[in-house]
Design a protein that fits this description.
The protein has 45 residues and is mainly β. The chain contains one helix and three strands; from the N terminus they run αβββ. Strands 1-2-3 form a three-stranded antiparallel sheet, with no helix packed on it.
């Protein structure tokens, strides 16, 4: 997420946990488009 800020984006929804699935977050890019990320991790709790 730090790279998003450095590149000129903005965090809209900070990193959150989806138990048993992984992690996610949402950010805007430099054009204002909302982008979502997902990181799989079955051990997330």
């Amino acid at each position: 997420m730090a790279r998003v800020i450095v590149a000129g984006g903005e965090i809209v929804v900070p990193k959150f946990t989806i138990p048993g699935v992984g992690y996610g977050c949402y950010f805007t890019d430099t054009t204002g488009m909302i982008v979502g990320l997902h990181q799989a991790d079955e051990s997330a709790s």
